[in-house]
Amino acid sequence: MSKQSQQKTTKDQNGVSVIQTQAPTSGLQQVPQLVPVSPGGGGKAMAPSKSKKSADKESDEYRQRRERNNLAVKKSRMRSKQKAQDTQERVNELKEENERLESKIKLLSKELSVLKDLFLEHAHNLADNVQPQSNDGSTTGQNNKNNNNTGQ
Q: Which stretches make up the BZIP domain (predicted)?
């Protein structure tokens, strides 16, 4: 690339700038570029139909569009409020259900504790009443002591 490319800028009939570059090996290329036509330069270019409509605020079409837009906004806000209201109602229902379930848990925990105590008391009483037997078939514990006293 010993030679530098050459550029030439022209405008076509639509006001679009066209940059023409000539590279050493490839000949002339055209690259279109949009350039603002307004004398202030920069900014957004508005289509002619939109600028006319925004300027004509007294027209029936404009008033109809505003009315439709106002109704749509009102409807959207109503839907949003209704959704928030429904969500709040659901939250309240779930809180109530949660409180009911928590009280049920407390009640069942108390019942479980009472039943455990009864079971342990019953198991303890059974253990006291049942006397283990020795390998020779005689009972151990009190009866064994009685046998020893009579044998002397």
A: 59-122
Instruction: Express each pLDDT in 74-107 by its tens digit.
Output: 999 999 999 999 999 999 999 999 999 999 999 9
Task: Give the integer Cα–Cα distance in Å for 80 and 134.
Answer: 82
For residues 11 and 18, the answer to whether their CB atoms sit within 8 Å is yes
- Tokens for 53? 């409509």
User: What's the per-residue H, E or C state across 86-135?
Assistant: HHHHHHHHHHHHHHHHHHHHHHHHHHHHHHHHHHHHHHHHHHHHCCCECC
* pTM for this model (two decimals): 0.42
Token digits of residue 124: 């303890």
Give CA–CA dist 68/15, Å, rounded. Answer: 37
